[in-house]
Structure formats: C-alpha cells, structure tokens
Amino acid sequence: MNEKASTAGAASGTAKSHGLLAEYRTPGALIAASKRVRDAGYRHWDTYTPFPVHGIDRAMGIKMTGLPWIVLACGLLGCGTGIWLQWWTNAVDYAWIISGKPFWSLPANVPVIFELSVLFSATGALFGMLALNGLPHPSHPLDLSARFAGVTSDKFFLLIQSSDPRFDERETRALLQETEPAGMEELPEGPGLDDRLPAYWTYAMVILAVLALVPFGLIAKARAEKSSQPRLHAIGDMDWQPKFKAQRANLVFADHRAMRLPVEGTVARGELFDDDHFYRGKTSSGAWARTFPKQVEPSDELMQRGNQRFGIYCTPCHGQLGDGNGMITQRAQDIGQVWVPPTNIADERLHRQPVGQLFNTVSRGLRNMPAYGAQIEPMDRWAIVMYVRALQRSRHANLSDLPEADRASLK
C-alpha cells in the first residue's frame, strides 16, 4: 500500500507526504487519541504540547529511557578518573611531603572526586539525550505548517509519519478522524528540507576536535624534553611591566638605590600618637601629668576594667593588694632564690608620684618590671593607673573619707 501511494504521488507530480498532523484542543483529547494510535500498532509517531502533559508517555507506550544508565556510567567514570588522577599526581608522579601528611588520603580528595563525578554525569546526560533523540535537527517539515505554530501557546498535536510500516493514507486518516480532532492536515516533506546535520558542520567539529588535542601534545612534548629557554609565558600580567624591585640599582636617583627612604617625619598609618598626655603621660611642657587625660572619664566600668587588667598583668608580682607579695614572690621565697620583692604600691613614694609617671612605668617598665606597652592598650593602662590610685587611697584613707553610714558601723 505504501509503495502504491508513493508511486501514485510521484506520477501525479505532488510532493511526497511526511505524514498526517492532527490538532486537539485539550490534553485529555490528545491522551485519548494517543491511546488509539498506540493500540493500532503505529511506531513512527509523536505528540507535541505547549507544556508537559502528565500521563502522555504512558498513553504513547513509551518505555523507560536508557539515559539514567548513561548518566550512571559517566558518573562512575568521573569518580574513577578523579581518584586515579589525584593518586597518580600526588603519590606517584610528584610525591611531595607536606607537613607529614600521607601522599594519598581519600577524605582529602573527595571534593575533586565529587566535582568530576558531577561534570561527567552532566556531560553524559546532555550528549546522551541528544543522541537518543537524534538531535540536532536543523530543519523539519513541521516548520512549514502555519497550524503548528499554535503548539507554543494552547494547541496540542499528534503526528503520524508516512515512514511508519503501518501507514496508509486512507486508513490512518480514518483512524485520526475517529479521535475527533479540531483539525487535520497532510504534512508535505517540503522542498530543500533536510533533517541531517550539514556536512560542513561535521567537518568543522572534526577539525576542532583534532585541534583540541594539540595543546595536550605540546604539554607532553614539554614534559619529555629539556630546554635552556624559559617556559611559554602567554599571559604576562604584571611580570613584564617596567619596574624596579627591592635592593636593585636605579640610576634615576643620586644614591642609585631603587628603595627610597621615607620622608622625614613620616608616621605609619594608625600610629600618629600626637597626644602626649594620653599616650606618654606628659604635659605639653614635658613634665609628668598629674591629671588623667580628657579621654579618661572616671566611671565604675573603667574602674572594673582596671581591676581586671591589674589582676591579669600585675598581681603575679605585686599581689591582689599591691603589697608586692604575689605568687612569683612567694615562689622565689619558697625555693630560696635571691629575689628583690616588687615595690609596694602603697609606698609613700609611689603615692606622691604623678599619674603620668605611673602610666609611663606601666608602659615602659622599670628595673625588673617589664614593659607592658605592647600588650596593653593605652586606655587599659590608664584604667590600671586609676585602680592603683584607688588601692593607694584605700591604704591611706581616714574616717572622713567614708560615708556617714559606714562611719557608724565602724564606731
């Protein structure tokens, strides 16, 4: 029957038929028609919808695709490639001891293994889908159908191709008429249409594939040979810019040195300590300051901060009461070591010292006492001085310094 139809078409000069195209208005009608065509035994046919239709694959009798197996195989290949690549590079080709770590350890190499597994799986899914669907199709007879343009909005179509072994123009048309389509038309092959990839595209892809192997060949050649010339440096970035490196000569300057001395009076960023009162404990005349700087406002919080800092840095030697009987002093006495006890901060001499001088002692140290300027911030050093003054005041206090309620309790 197919041979007769083709012979009749050729004799009459009409275009060869590609198949019959039926249009449906609802997904339900398309599913019902697909079941009729499936049960009739047709194999070369397909449906087209503007959106995925649930159940259409079962109505068409489509079997489970083999794409998951392709993705699984590619994923396993990527996993194996990641394991082998890292094992060979780290444990065989370039075994290098790094902090005593093993040359090969699976947990350390999981990220690359995961990435290659995903990369190979995604590549296999893409190209496997294209191969199983016979894509790409540069052209198709459906491109010439004005009716088929509605498939992107609200129309549903079923196409039975004339290449199907069971295709007969009258019987197939009658079958589709029974499914009550909204419209039907015969789809011609169309002059000049070819669903095969153009030959020049095939040649271009083959040439590109061969050229892609050239860099790997050059890399293999460079690894196997020795040369007195430096490696190819394609991207110079800042390596080739005109510049003078450290400790190099530069004839532009009189001293012929590329490194320049900083301008006299230069101060590093963040180190402009121009407030002598706050940073050095001195007045503008150079004398020790007898008052706290304006930045230091007496408060309970600052006193507590001074107590805390004093406990951390001062009590090991001076003790909690500041009497010089700290843990270090007690340890020296226990082991019989010759030891000069720290000064008792309640000493009259220290009591008369200006606060600026006490700040300087904390900052720069004195005799056996180390300098704490590098460990303690200036504000914390002033807090320690404030706490020391409180300790001194407590050792030299009299009854009039106490509140009235506390005086009564002492009496």
Explain this structure:
- The chain is mostly helical and 411 residues long.
- It is 46% helix and 6% strand.
- It contains 16 helices and four strands.
- The chain has a four-stranded antiparallel sheet.
- The longest helix is centred in the N-terminal third of the chain and has 27 residues.
- It is elongated.
- The termini are far apart.
Can you describe this structure in just a few lines?
The protein has helices spanning 2-12, 27-39, 56-60, 67-93, 106-132, 169-178, 199-212, 214-224, 276-280, 300-313, 315-318, 327-334, 348-352, 355-364, 378-395, 404-410; strands spanning 17-24, 45-48, 156-161, 183-188. The protein is mainly alpha-helical and 411 residues long. It starts with a helix and ends with a helix.
Number of strands: 4
Helical segment tally? Answer: 16
Globular, elongated, flat, extended or rod-shaped: what is the shape? elongated
Q: Which percent bin holds the helix content?
A: 40-55%
Q: What separation lies between the terminal Cα atoms? A: 131 Å
Strand order of the largest sheet: 2-3-1-4
Broad structural category = mainly alpha
What's the layout of helices and strands?
Elements (H helix, E strand, L loop, with lengths): L1 H11 L4 E8 L2 H13 L5 E4 L7 H5 L6 H27 L12 H27 L23 E6 L7 H10 L4 E6 L10 H14 L1 H11 L51 H5 L19 H14 L1 H4 L8 H8 L13 H5 L2 H10 L13 H18 L8 H7 L1
Antiparallel strand pairs: 1-3, 1-4, 2-3
Helix pairs in contact: 4-5, 10-15, 14-15
